[in-house]
Specification:
This protein has about 450 residues and is of the alpha/beta class. The chain is about 55% helix and about 10% strand. It has 20 helices and eight strands. It has a five-stranded parallel β-sheet with strand order 5-6-7-4-8, sandwiched between helices. It has a three-stranded mixed β-sheet with strand order 1-2-3. Helix 5 packs parallel to helix 6 (about 150-165), helix 7 (about 175-190) packs antiparallel against helix 8 (about 195-200) and helix 17 (about 380-395) packs across helix 19 (about 415-425).
Amino acid sequence: MRHTSDTLWLEILETLGETAVNDIYLRQVSPRYLDKESFKVAVPSDYTQDEIQNRFLREITKVLADRISSECAFEIAVDASLAKTPDVDKTESTVKDTAPEPTGLNPNYVFDNFYVGQSNRICHATAYAASQDLGGEYNPLFIYGGVGLGKTHLLHAIGNLVQEENSKRKVLYVTSETFMNEYIDSIMNRTSAQGFRSKYRTADLLLIDDIQFIQRKEGTQEEFFNTFNDLYLNSNQIVMTSDRSPSMLKNLEERLSSRFEWGMVAEIDKPNYELRLLILRQKCQDQGLDNISDEVLNYVAEIVTANIRELEGTLVSLKARASLMDEELTIDLARSVLRDTSTPTRDKSLRKVVTPESIQELVAEHFQLNSSDLTSTKRTKILVYPRQIAMYLCRELTQLSLIDIAEAFNRQNHRTITYACQQIENLLEDGETKNVIQLLTDELT
């Protein structure tokens, strides 16, 4: 049989099997030229070229040796024009030009009103840099941290700045739940499937909030995997937020979690005292609350440590109580409000002081061990789980650094604490472990 470049490429794919036929990178190959000495193809990007060479070159070379000759070389050239044609029909393109889709952005969330401190400085700088270089060094950008720390604010700030600087950019903000629901709708209504893919895969900037919620959603993960690949290969920017790092998303396909780490992973931490005080003062200024003394603000900043959202809520409570009771915003009023607030961060004088020693004693008692067993170097199975529970509780319930916690357990390396915490977090889906943590936490606090 006399081969052409096209028929030879199809034969190579069939020989390599189903994995190759469905591979996102091999599907971008455009056969160009064939003779006895070389088989030349083109791809749209350097990245695709590298992926094919690293993963398939040996197998393709073997097929060429069998079908053509052992001297036939496989050559891949980059042709950027192959990436210029989006997978949408002309009708949809026309609609896009005349009726832009809503972005989902909140115009109130911008970089100018994001409070920057030591705990979030890197996240803020990285988010701003990504907005200035879409598809560049920080693609994808993965921001993770606890609730109420400003992850969503940064997502909207990126989108708003991109829109402000170039209104023709297609920016799209959605939660992972919205993405999943629209994906399910597209399956139920086949006529909307192409519109769904066009909406997401042609975005210049895709902002996905709370990506952790696609865990265990196999179909949604598959669709997002393909969406991610299309955007990334076309150098379109992807920014995601999560409550945990990619490595901690255990119910996510490995091929997805590994892609989340391709660009930049940035953690946003709890605000330190200085940042909490700055936020309180700025909020007072914005709301015209010039009658709150520094003593009160210092007290609130010291006591309310969890997140920015709780700080704002405390300020609202103070304002409401003073207004309803026609009282001045004094330190006594602040103590009263925080005493009535059933949060873990209320006045430290009203709750037990949690220390590594108290945690070790309670955990040892719960598991019928000696507290010295938890700080020993023994690694018997009966000790490992309780010790990891104690390490996890130290991280969650004390203000100690990982290094300090390591010292409390006679460990030389804080990575031991990190590993232990990861192991317990992996088990929190299990009802028994979750109940143990809750029971011990209630007793300690």
